[in-house]
Amino acid sequence: MKTEDVVKDEGQYILQTYGRPEFVLERGNGVYLFDTDGNRYLDFVSGLAVNALGYGDYDVLKAIEEQAGKLMHVSNLYHTIPSVKLAKMLVESSFADRVFFCNSGTESWEATLKFCRKWGNTTHDKPKNRLIAFNDSFHGRTYGSISTTGQPKYHQGFEPLLPGIDFADFNDLTSVEKLVTDETCAILVEPLQAEGGIHAAEPEFLQGLRALCDEREMLLVFDEIQVGCGRLGSLWAHQQYGVEPDIMTLAKALGGGLPIGVALLRQKVADAIAAGDHAATFGANPVACAAAVTVFGKLLEDGFIDSVREKGEYLIGRLEKLQERWPEHITGVRGKGLIAGAVTVRPAAEYLAAFRERDILVATAGADVVRFLPPLIVEKDRIDEVVDVFDEILRQDT
Ligand SMILES: Cc1ncc(COP(=O)(O)O)c(C=O)c1O
């Protein structure tokens, strides 16, 4: 199909919930994407923090091919091998005792909300089912997820939302303490708010939340859907904080490009969940789990995560130099590991086209942050290339 025909048919047949630029991506290789007109793009979006190993990783492709040839789907009525292998790896590499498998970030978040309320309602003298979430958070687009997302733009027109949710300010422990009651069962937080503008939690904040949860018998839940699996330069984001949650959600990068979602739970939460309480037809899909076993194995290889941390420091250091050079255009640089944001004076979206004209794909995080999310396998030279191009774009801006 020709590019213009794809764009035209997309406009005619697909529900217009996304505004897409007028080119059509056809294939990928390493850190590069290629469109139907033969253009090559350096990809600093990674399918929104999914393609940690870039495109076409040989071992991931082999795992998918082998598993697809054996068995693609049987449902959760039966035992299968890849899900058990993956569950064991995740549990042995984390605080968790159990995992629940589903197919996306928002699904793992919905499962988590149910698990929190079931635990709160059934393991205390009186039911506990209120949840504390944070302003500027993002947890996905289904009802529980938007109801716990602290950004009104995701609520408007979809009310009424789920009841029993209170919003505190991120990095403000006092604002959380004020909301806690005997009915609060869980505090839900991203260790780094990504979609909300790339704001990392302060160590004292997460440590304070842990202490508060222990003191008031509440669950601490970390959404690591975007920032887990190595993205921040540690396997789990929370490892940089010396704090462990009771539940953590994962998705995105884990599946190597196939849909997967996971809720990881401590045994005390698992004890409150009975057979039949939650389910997903495609959850624990053998092909997605086989891909994830391979992706996760690579994240665990010696030196891989260290290299993410090192390259992340390099990227953020270079962006900070750019801010020093162009203070009239960039007012801040935020991030950790290989998620970085430049806070721009002009609307961030305006820079996307400028990068694209120079064959680079970047994203935004909110209205005024240009977000850089390269595959974790990116090389330093490619980071230099992107920052040098940003420099040139900003020079032309003046
Ligand atoms: C922190 C966080 N939570 C949840 C989600 C929702 O994940 P999904 O789009 O896979 O439903 C996202 C997606 O961007 C996210 O960044």
Helices, by number, come to 13
Unique ligands: pyridoxal-5'-phosphate
The first-to-last residue Cα distance is 40 Å
Mean pLDDT: 97
CATH architecture group name of the largest domain: 3-Layer(aba) Sandwich
Order of helices and strands: HEEEHHHEHEHEHEEEHEEEHHHEEHEEEH
Q: Which structural class is indicated by helix and strand composition?
A: alpha/beta
Largest sheet: 7 strands, mixed
CATH class label of the largest domain: Alpha Beta
State the low-pLDDT regions, or none.
none
Alpha-carbon Rg, integer: 21 Å
Structural domain count: 2
Helix content: 25-40%
Folded structure, characterized:
The protein is α/β, with parallel strands linked by helices. It folds into 2 domains: 3-56 and 303-397, Aspartate Aminotransferase, domain 1; 58-299, Aspartate Aminotransferase, domain 2, CATH 3.40.640. The protein is 37% helix and 18% strand. It contains 13 helices and 17 strands. The chain has helices spanning 3-13, 46-49, 58-70, 81-92, 105-122, 143-148, 173-177, 203-215, 267-270, 286-299, 304-325, 349-357, 380-397, and strands spanning 25-29, 32-35, 40-43, 98-102, 130-134, 165-168, 184-189, 192-193, 199-200, 219-223, 247-250, 261-265, 330-336, 339-344, 360-361, 363-364, 369-372. The strands form 4 sheets. The chain has a 7-stranded mixed sheet with strand order 4-12-11-10-7-5-6, with helices on both faces. It has a 4-stranded mixed sheet with strand order 1-2-3-15. Helix 4 runs parallel beside helix 10 (286-299). The two termini are 40 Å apart. The structure holds pyridoxal-5'-phosphate (PLP). The site of pyridoxal-5'-phosphate has 15 residues, from helix 5. Residues 48, 104-106, 109, 138-140, 190, 194-195, 223, 225-226, 251 line the site of pyridoxal-5'-phosphate.
